[in-house]
Specification:
Layout (H helix, E strand, L loop, with lengths): L13 H11 L5 E2 L14 H7 L16 H13 L9 E4 L2 H12 L5 E6 L5 H7 L3 E9 L3 E3 L1 H11 L3 E7 L11 H14 L2 E5 L8 H9 L27 E6 H4 L8 E6 L2 H18 L4 H5 L1 H29 L7 E2 L7 E5 L6 H12 L1 E2 L1 E2 L10 E5 L4 H17 L1
Parallel strand pairs: 1-12, 3-4, 3-6, 6-7, 7-8
Antiparallel strand pairs: 2-9, 4-5, 8-9, 10-11, 11-14, 13-14
Length: 412
């Protein structure tokens, strides 16, 4: 009766079961998995947000498959202010980044085709691909001093997938490693995609949270952090690009850049050879027209929400920086735990002594200390032992949770 797209029944793991028991008992948890900025005590200008949604034009329904022109223009203005100018005609609005992936998978692949995704990374792509009837092939982010693309691994994944390889997904900066793409990686990636006729999907939702120190270090090196995966051309439909360039789609949205996940507005920026980009936009318009999922109120309010979001973004940035300082101070000289180098994002990866399995450590933290943290295996780290912590919680709660984590990791 039901499709076989998703594995069912879904069996909760030990951590999920223990977490549900804790919540049912009303335990006061120190949650270092929190990814919702609206729940971590940040000031939100509720009145300004409500006023932005009070545009009388919301009563008028204007179907616009790519999104209202005013909203796309507002996104373009924001992109330009961050040094990434783009023509509004190359922008397609979506209800979320997840929907953007769904639309792009429909555009690029047929059932049974393969999408290449990084490991480690957030465990979302398996579900999104399965819901489109696609396969997931993985390539490795190798860790030396920092995480970077293992191009040998990428080549093997492409070769194994053959003609079924339709797109390479890149998260920039990566979630959870925080590693951002360097210029040399970008050029190699473009060469691989261009020579194999494979599209590139660049998820840049955390790009506005690059660490200024990391950017400065990159600027002083011979291989700086890239500004974006899309070009800085303002020509329509990628007119300045040559045929050797890959078709590229960069994703963004209010959820991360403005700390407004409740507003449900994302965007796709298309780039690449003129003919391919133009056809891609026409096809995207047809797919989007089938659903017309983006609400009129949020599109009408887009310009104002982006302005309001700048203040929320600043508050999130300060919170992330404060908690990162706490984490680094606590894992300074003499500590057997260390924070892996990162370029940006909302998360940090903590390497702990591999004395006990990650699962046992996170279960002990939750059971004995009421601390919730992600184990590295949740993100498919190649080996143990890593913990992934959100940098969003309130600093006093964050510091207490870190103290308990380090005490248990060092005592295990």
């Amino acid at each position: 009766m039901f499709s076989r797209r998703l594995r069912w029944p879904y069996t909760p793991n030990r951590l999920s079961r223990l977490l549900e028991e804790k919540r049912q008992r009303g335990a006061a948890l120190l949650d270092l998995t929190e990814s919702n900025p609206t729940r971590v005590g940040l000031p939100y200008p509720s009145d300004a947000i409500a006023a932005a949604l009070a545009d009388p034009g919301i009563a008028l329904y204007e179907p616009a498959p790519r999104g209202l022109g005013s909203a796309r223009a507002a996104v373009a203005v924001r992109q330009a202010a961050r040094g990434r100018p783009v023509d509004p005609e190359r922008i397609v609005l979506t209800a979320s980044t997840s929907e953007a992936y769904s639309i792009l998978f429909k555009l690029l692949a047929d059932p049974g085709d393969a999408i290449l995704v990084p490991r480690p990374s957030y465990p979302l792509f398996d579900y999104l691909a399965a819901l489109e009837g696609l396969r997931v092939a993985t390539y490795t982010l190798a860790h030396d001093d920092r995480f970077s693309i293992d191009f040998d691994s990428l080549g093997r994944a492409i070769d194994a997938s053959g003609s079924a390889a339709r797109a390479i997904v890149l998260v920039n900066p990566n979630n959870p490693t925080g590693s951002a793409l360097r210029c040399r990686e970008r050029e190699r990636l473009r060469a691989v995609c261009g020579s194999r006729d494979i599209a590139l999907i660049a998820d840049e939702v955390f790009f506005d949270y690059l660490d200024p120190e990391a950017v400065e270090r990159g600027a002083r090196s011979s291989d700086p952090i890239v500004s974006s995966l899309v070009t800085e051309s303002t020509s329509p439909a990628g007119a300045s690009r040559q045929g050797s360039e890959p078709l590229t789609f960069a994703l963004g949205g209010l959820s991360k850049s403005c700390g407004m996940p409740q507003m449900k507005l994302g965007w796709i920026v298309a780039d690449g050879p003129a003919d391919a980009t133009g056809e891609a936009l026409e096809r995207l318009e047809l797919i989007a027209d089938t659903y017309l999922s983006v609400s009129t109120p949020v599109m009408r309010a887009a310009g104002r929400l982006l302005e309001i979001g700048a203040g929320i973004h600043s508050a999130i940035t300060r919170r992330v920086e404060a908690n990162l300082r706490i984490l680094r101070d606590r894992t300074g000289a003499g500590s057997p735990c260390r924070v892996l180098d990162r370029d940006g994002g909302w998360y940090a990866v903590l390497q702990v002594p591999a004395v006990v399995p990650e699962e046992e450590l996170v279960l002990a933290l939750l059971s004995g200390d009421d601390v919730l943290v992600h184990p590295g295996y949740f993100f498919d780290f190649a080996r143990e032992a890593y913990l992934v912590v959100s940098l969003l919680p309130q600093p006093d709660r964050f510091e207490e949770a870190v103290r308990l984590i380090l005490a248990r990791a060092q005592g295990s």
